[in-house]
C-alpha cells in the first residue's frame, strides 16, 4: 500500500480520531477530578461577585487552552507531516493572502472577546445599588481596622453607630459580620497611609486610601468564618493587620446587631 502524502486527507483521517480521543481522555482524567483544578487555583467564592470573577478566570483559561491546543496542534502537525525527508527543496511560495488575513484578524477577535467579558464582569463587580441592605464603613489605620454600621444607632455611646474597633495584634481581631443574600456596601477610608481591604474568598481587593473614599458592594452567598487582611504594605506591622469576617444568616446578623447595640449602650463605647 502506498504511503499517503504528507498532509493528505487519508493521513488526517487516521490521526484526527486519535488526537480527539487523547484530548477527551486528558480532560476527563484531569478536569473532573478536583474542584481546585477546575477553579485553576482560585478559592471557593463566597459572594455573587466572586462567582462572576471566578467564571471570568475560568473562561480566560478555557480560551487560553483552546488557543494553545490549536497552536500546538498546528506545530505538531507541521513537524510530523512536513518534516524534511530528502534534499528536495520544497515548493517556494511568496505569500498566501487568506492565511495572512486570517492570522491578522483572529488575534483582534480574541482580544475583542476577552475585552468584552472583562468589561462586562468588571462593571457587574463594581456595581453599587442605590439602596444597599447593609452599609459598613471601614476605616483602615496602622495597624488594624474599624467597622461601623451607620444604619444601626447606639444612643448612649461615644460612637453613634454599632462599631467594632480593632486592636493591633496580639489584641482581639476586629469582627466584621455580614448577612447572606443581602447587598452589603463597604465604604472604605484610611486615617493615615494606603491600606487595602482583602478577603480571599471574595476574590476581590480594593485600596483603602486617605482622603479618597472607595466603595464596593457584595452579596454573600455562603455562611462561614474567614480571615480578612490588609494587602498593601503599610508599615512595620502590616502583616498583623487582620480581621475576622463572619458571614451569617440575616436572622443571626440582626440578633448580633441587637446584642452589640445593647452591649455598646451599656459600656458607652465600641467593643
Ligand atoms: Cu495596612
Key traits:
alpha+beta, binds copper (II) ion, Immunoglobulin-like, 5 helices, five-stranded mixed sheet, 2 domains, 10 strands, 40% helix, 271 residues
Q: If you compute it from the alpha carbons, what radius of gyration comes out, rounded to the nearest whole angstrom? A: 28 Å
Ligand catalogue: copper (II) ion
Mean of residue pLDDT values? 88
How large is the share of residues in beta strands?
15-25%
| Count of extended strands | 10
Write down the domain tally: 2
CATH top level of the largest domain?
Mainly Beta
Sheet with most strands: strand arrangement = 3-2-1-5-8
The count of helical stretches stands at 5
Largest sheet: 5 strands, mixed
Task: Quickly give the CATH architecture of the largest domain.
Answer: Sandwich
Proportion of helical residues: 40-55%
Would you give the CATH topology of the largest domain? Immunoglobulin-like
* Stretches with pLDDT under 50, minimum 5 residues: none
Report the span from N to C terminus: 87 Å
What structural class do you assign from the helix and strand content? Answer: alpha+beta
User: So what's the overall shape?
Assistant: elongated
List the helices and strands in order: HHHHEEEEEEEEEEH
Per CATH, the superfamily of the largest domain is Cupredoxins -  blue copper proteins
What does this structure look like?
The chain has 271 residues and is of the alpha+beta class. It folds into two domains: 9-80 and 97-126, no CATH class; 134-267, Cupredoxins -  blue copper proteins (Immunoglobulin-like, Sandwich). The chain is 40% helix and 24% strand. It is built from five helices and ten strands; from the N terminus they run H-H-H-H-E-E-E-E-E-E-E-E-E-E-H. Strands 3-2-1-5-8 form a five-stranded mixed β-sheet. The chain has a five-stranded mixed β-sheet with strand order 4-10-9-6-7. Strand 1 (134-141) and strand 2 (144-153) form a beta hairpin. Helix 3 packs antiparallel against helix 4. The radius of gyration is 28 Å and the shape is elongated. The model has no long low-confidence stretch (mean pLDDT 88). The structure holds copper (II) ion.
Amino acid at each position: 500500500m502506498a504511503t499517503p502524502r504528507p498532509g493528505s486527507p487519508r493521513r488526517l483521517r487516521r490521526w484526527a480520531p486519535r488526537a480527539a480521543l487523547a484530548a477527551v481522555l486528558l480532560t476527563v482524567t484531569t478536569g473532573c477530578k478536583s474542584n481546585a483544578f477546575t477553579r485553576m487555583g482560585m478559592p471557593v467564592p463566597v459572594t455573587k461577585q466572586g462567582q462572576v470573577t471566578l467564571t471570568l478566570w475560568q473562561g480566560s483559561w478555557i480560551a487560553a487552552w483552546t488557543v494553545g491546543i490549536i497552536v500546538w496542534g498546528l506545530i505538531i502537525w507541521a513537524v510530523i507531516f512536513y518534516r524534511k525527508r530528502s534534499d528536495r527543496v520544497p515548493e517556494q511560495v511568496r505569500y498566501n493572502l487568506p492565511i495572512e488575513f486570517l492570522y491578522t484578524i483572529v488575534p483582534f477577535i480574541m482580544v475583542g472577546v476577552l475585552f468584552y467579558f472583562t468589561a462586562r464582569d468588571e462593571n457587574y463587580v463594581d456595581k453599587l445599588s442605590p439602596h444597599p441592605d447593609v452599609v459598613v464603613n471601614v476605616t483602615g489605620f496602622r495597624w488594624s481596622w474599624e467597622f461601623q454600621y451607620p444604619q444601626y444607632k447606639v444612643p448612649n455611646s461615644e460612637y453613634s453607630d454599632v462599631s467594632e474597633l480593632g486592636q493591633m495584634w496580639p489584641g482581639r481581631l476586629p469582627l466584621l459580620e455580614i448577612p447572606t443574600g443581602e447587598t452589603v456596601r463597604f465604604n472604605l477610608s484610611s486615617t493615615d497611609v494606603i491600606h487595602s481591604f482583602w478577603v480571599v474568598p471574595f476574590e476581590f481587593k480594593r485600596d483603602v486610601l486617605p482622603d479618597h473614599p472607595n466603595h464596593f458592594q457584595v452579596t454573600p452567598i455562603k455562611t462561614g468564618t474567614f480571615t480578612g487582611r490588609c494587602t498593601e504594605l503599610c508599615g512595620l506591622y502590616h502583616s498583623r493587620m487582620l480581621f475576622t469576617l463572619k458571614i451569617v444568616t440575616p436572622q443571626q446578623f440582626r440578633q448580633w446587631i441587637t446584642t452589640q447595640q445593647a452591649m455598646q449602650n451599656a459600656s458607652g463605647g465600641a467593643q
